[in-house]
């Protein structure tokens, strides 16, 4: 596989500029929990890394961090100078999470300002892309569900090149996903597309296809709001088992249908990002 060229930085919210070590920050959000947002974020990050890009994952779910488990990581990251943090690395992806800094069963009983302060510190104090030099092409940020303090801080203070909304097909899930989409629109963060997760289940014994959560919800929502449907992901036991085991299915079963679906979504995500305006050297991002 030929190594692709470095991704250029793309335009972010007015008044902000891309971070020095992160060319493109992509937020992965959802209106509600339980739709597979974190699993989607991790597998997309690994798929992007497999395409040859320099990729990181920031676990922004301060209250319920799950990225360390999904990437099979434990222990504490190094801090060479007592101020900055070296990100952990697994499956070709750099990652940082509050889960590395607290015991696994320790609840984060924090008010909103403490959680948002922790998020910005994790983002800004991590030495993204230091190992190879030149920073990251993409930093995938796994947001907590909903539209609360973390999302507001991300929109107001952190330069975001685009957002991806994860939903499941049923009406209850898409109703909440619409709120997340409208939130990003109101704060001038472009929505690069929707991902419909758990779209269908194929019986491992007979091959029968069932739409357990209904069908077409993501497609209808994408059409209504004029955003791309980046893809539909299957409901497969391998996705859950490999996530629990710490090896994302894109890496564990690279020839499987699930891995192919994640790679297709990653490719469409890159296409949507590259259609956005670029940040030109010497020009403020808000003017591009």
Describe the 3D structure.
The structure is a single chain. The strands form two sheets. An eight-stranded mixed β-sheet has the order 3-4-2-5-1-6-7-10, sandwiched between helices. The protein has a two-stranded antiparallel ribbon with strand order 8-9. The chain has one domain: P-loop containing nucleotide triphosphate hydrolases (Rossmann fold), CATH 3.40.50. The relative contact order is 0.20. Helix 1 (37-50) packs across helix 9 (257-274) and helix 3 crosses helix 4. The radius of gyration is 18 Å and the shape is globular. The chain has 288 residues and is α/β, with parallel strands linked by helices. Residues 282-288 have low confidence and may be disordered. 34% of the residues lie in helices and 15% in strands. It has nine helices and ten strands.
* Number of β-strand runs: 10
Quaternary structure of the protein: single chain
Structural class assignment: alpha/beta
Poorly predicted runs: 282-288
Mean of residue pLDDT values: 86
Helical content (DSSP H or I, runs of 4+): 25-40%
SSE order, one letter for each helix or strand: EHEHEEHEHEHEEEHEHHH
Q: What is the CATH superfamily label?
A: P-loop containing nucleotide triphosphate hydrolases
In percent, how much strand structure appears in the residues?
5-15%
CATH class reads Alpha Beta
Query: Largest sheet, described in full?
Result: 8 strands, mixed
The strands making up the biggest β-sheet line up spatially as 3-4-2-5-1-6-7-10
Shape: globular
Compute the CA-based radius of gyration.
Answer: 18 Å
CATH architecture: 3-Layer(aba) Sandwich
The third-level CATH topology is Rossmann fold
- The number of domains is 1
Number of helices: 9
């Amino acid at each position: 596989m030929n190594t692709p060229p470095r991704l250029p930085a793309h335009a972010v919210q007015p008044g902000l500029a891309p971070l020095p070590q992160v060319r493109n920050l992509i937020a992965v959000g959802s209106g509600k929990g339980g739709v597979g947002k974190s699993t989607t974020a991790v597998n997309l990050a690994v798929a992007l890394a497999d395409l040859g890009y320099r990729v990181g994952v920031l676990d922004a779910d301060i209250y319920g961090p799950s990225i360390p488990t999904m990437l099979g990581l434990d222990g504490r990251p190094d801090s060479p100078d007592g101020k900055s943090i070296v990100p952990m690395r697994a499956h070709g992806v750099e990652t940082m999470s509050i889960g590395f800094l607290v015991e696994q069963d320790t609840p984060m009983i924090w008010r909103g300002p403490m959680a948002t302060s922790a998020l910005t510190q994790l983002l800004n104090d991590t030495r993204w892309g230091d190992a190879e030099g030149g920073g990251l092409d993409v930093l995938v940020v796994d947001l907590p569900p909903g539209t609360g303090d973390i999302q507001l801080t991300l929109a107001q203070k952190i330069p975001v090149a685009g957002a991806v909304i994860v939903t499941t097909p049923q009406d209850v899930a898409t109703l909440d996903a619409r709120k997340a989409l409208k939130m990003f629109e109101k704060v001038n963060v472009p929505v690069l597309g929707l991902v419909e997760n758990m779209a269908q289940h194929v019986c491992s014994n007979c091959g029968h296809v069932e739409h357990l959560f209904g069908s077409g919800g993501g497609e209808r929502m994408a059409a209504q709001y004029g955003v791309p449907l980046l893809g539909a992901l299957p409901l497969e036991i391998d996705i859950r088992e490999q996530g629990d085991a710490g090896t994302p299915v894109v890496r564990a079963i690279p020839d499987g249908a699930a891995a192919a679906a994640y790679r297709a979504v990653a490719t469409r995500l890159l296409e949507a990002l590259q259609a956005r305006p670029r940040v030109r050297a010497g020009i403020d991002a808000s003017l591009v």
